[in-house]
Amino acid sequence: MSTTPPTYRLRQIPAYVERFSLVPFLRQTSASFDLVGEITVYSLAPSVGDWTRPPSQTATISFHANPELLWGQGNAWYFQLSDQQRPLEMDSHFLDFTVLNSVSEADHVVDCIAISGLASHPFGSWRYRQPRAGAQGASLNFMWLRDSLPWDVKGIRVLIYGYDSRLTHSHSFQTIDDIARGFVPMLRTIAPADQLKPIIILAHSLGGIVVKSALLRLAEMPEKEHILLRNIRSIMFFGVPSKGMHVGHFLSMVEGQYNQQLVKMLARGSMYLSDLDAKLSQVPCYRLMRLVSAHETETSPTTVVDANGKWTRDGSHEILVSPESATQPGCEPTDVFPINKDHSNMVKFAPGDADYARTLAYLRWLVNDTASQARDIYYGDRQTANDQDIFDASGAVYDWDAELQAVASDPWPLGSWAQQPSPVHEAARPDDQTRPHEDHNADHAILDAAEEVPEHSKGRNVDHAILDTPEESPQHSEAVASSFAGNDKMECPYCAIKFTHRDLKRHLLTHNQENPYVATRAAIPGRETTSVTDAARSLRQPTHSPAISDSRTDVPYGEPNSINSLSNDDVLEAGGVPTE
């Protein structure tokens, strides 16, 4: 049996505290931490949130043994420091945003936001849960978003978003749209509007539906609010049911509860899901986004009640989300790939996992694509007033594909499989360079998302879900699919030139937001243009080379909220069922 200790989130850490000095700082400034045993620090990064307050940091930590200070009810604790006005906040629920790594302002290229699914735990849903062969009870505390991705893709800041998605013992009657409305204002906290980086979203199961609903909410806002929507460049969907999923066993779990309606919205044949895609197909910014779809290729165990009245994952095996349902409308065929795991485990990668390598290849591709788009925008912003006049008078049409190819020939540097700092134990030295996951193991998941459950939290259920739903009407599906047709030529609304779906996505980035009828990207000298006349009208090259620089002078800080973290074994003992 896995013995991985629970992971906790520690917030309101002063900005001057460094990773290797965090444990001594805790012991010196709070009597509560002076009494506990070994503490391991896995990450320390600037917080997001309220930038008007003093900057702070957020850490993920674990204890070698469950300390007495965590005994008692609840999943959030507060510790007053001797010389600080704000107390330290520790929780196991991981609600709202948690930053998993620190990246310098000069290197910061893109933000990657991960959101989990139904009955999930924001952190545990992405954490490796299978015990190592021959581990003999040792634990592997490996969470790829924290322990691999920041080291494999240079310049990426990784954040996870948590929300309450419990199934059993829930009194919530929130809908998917309610969850999305809560997600939208939190998106604004990741950085000030003038310091936003391009955003890539990773979404699992229900999390992808929440993201799509949130995008629709953003599109309905006034035009001046669309900067956040335009900054979301790519979305990678993991088992997100566009046509519904198998939910029969989940309906049994929520029978008679207020959240029954939320589960029904995910069923096969759900009109809510088909209507959502139909509405999104009319949102220009969404049509510009690069969409990648991953689907499971293993059946998933369903949940049943055991002899003790507890929900377990010992039911029949079913296909929860079919490949057809997991492939999002508007997704190019080349951007669809399989993951040979079940619905819950498809986002729980182990170190060296082949499915992680495949996912990483797509993520590097997306980051590189995002960086190239940023270069295009940079070229346009550097155009002079004289250039503008020449272009306006000429109505020149350039070889956009050739120019984009030239930009792509100078890809933004990406990280390699570099070594990363190990988790900081009390005896650890700053020059340790072993990978963090070499010290620990992990628990098994029962459903899909629940994290480890501290002893004091037993009796509180954190379910994990793998959905299953009825199918939508063929007519509606065809209508949505046709609206996203990738092979038909579509006309640019600004210059009336026709492009394929993907080429139009790139082309629209060349139009100025304030004066969309004037393309703002400068032609590159020496490039063959469409005619001799066009060549004479070519604009001069910008004097500065394209670059993506972080103009921020202050890193946004603040504090998110909280949620409960349970390990699958503990959840089973407590009568709960972990999910996605």
Automatic annotation (TrEMBL):
GO CC terms: endoplasmic reticulum; membrane; mitochondrion
Biased composition (Basic and acidic residues): 426-440
Region called Disordered, residue ranges: 412-440, 523-580
Presence of the UniProt keyword Nucleotide-binding in the record: no
InterPro entries: AB_hydrolase_fold (IPR029058), SERAC1 (IPR052374)
Biased composition (Polar residues): 540-550
UniProt source species: Cyphellophora attinorum
Name the record gives this protein: C2H2-type domain-containing protein
Keyword vocabulary terms for this entry: Endoplasmic reticulum, Membrane, Mitochondrion
Subcellular location: Endoplasmic reticulum; Membrane; Mitochondrion
